[in-house]
Give the backbone structure.
Amino acid sequence: MSVFRKPGERMIRDPGDLRLGDIIRSSTDCSSECLCIAGVPWDWSTAGRPGARFAPSRLREYLYSYNLHKDLCLCDWGDIAIAPGDLGKTSQRIYEAVENLSRTCRGFLLLGGDHSITRYSVSSALETLGGRAGLLVFDAHLDLRQLSEGFSSGTYLRDLLSERGDRLRVAVIGVRSHSIPRYMLNLAEKLGVKYFYSEDLDAGSVVNTLNEIFSNVDWIYISFDSDSLDPSQCPGVNSPSPLGISLKDAVKILDMVMKRYRIVGGDIVEYAPPLDQGDLCGRNLALIAYRIINNMWESSARYKAPQ
Ligand SMILES: [Mn+2]
């Protein structure tokens, strides 16, 4: 026996200490009973501070260190092959990958990447799964920009609504008025986007209002923008905004919502590890991923029968 520790091997030898990383399967070893994860290291749509391309591997590192309390089956499909700087090619690959994930897996979670990836992911899931969808977003911003030139991750929701608005109901939790232009608040009303400010957030009443918004949807997709959290709990983002929601409230809302609906997919976006402090964001977001995965496992078991 070697006295040296193998790469990736844990320092503490406790065979009963089962972590998510101990049960993870590759895509080739996957079945339709399993949940799936895929990374999307794309941040070329970020006009401000890039770095989200480094998020998938950091999120995996912390996510896989959390303890396992359910007999989960979880597959990691690795990262979607993005084409650096080429949004056309990359968006097509995201679209195709999500088509595959939606068909093959019991549920899926993308580890972004900037927020632009949500447009292609939700669009693809809608096309593949059919029906009407609820998009539950956690975000400081409304992402309803219309640019006269260039790229921004702040346009995805407007694009998505113009393409798929007829089959989509949207709610955004954690919005900060001081980080949103006035025209966008009016636009949100016009487009039927329901938003909740972070500063007077009450989990119970949020969930009750969501019941009204999502009363007619067949399934739900969750998009978690890391800047929805307060910068004290997640400083490593492209566009931090003070007075955010707490990790505790985010988890509470996620738990309550995911118990009520059929959750088929989601993403965690806008986390930029180079801008993080003490890996605070990484650990907190990995917890969000962990809770989404655990809840999605339960949710998909309840809604197993085909619609
Ligand atoms: Mn945002």
Q: What stands out?
A: The first strand starts at residue 25 and ends at 26. The chain has nine helices and nine strands.
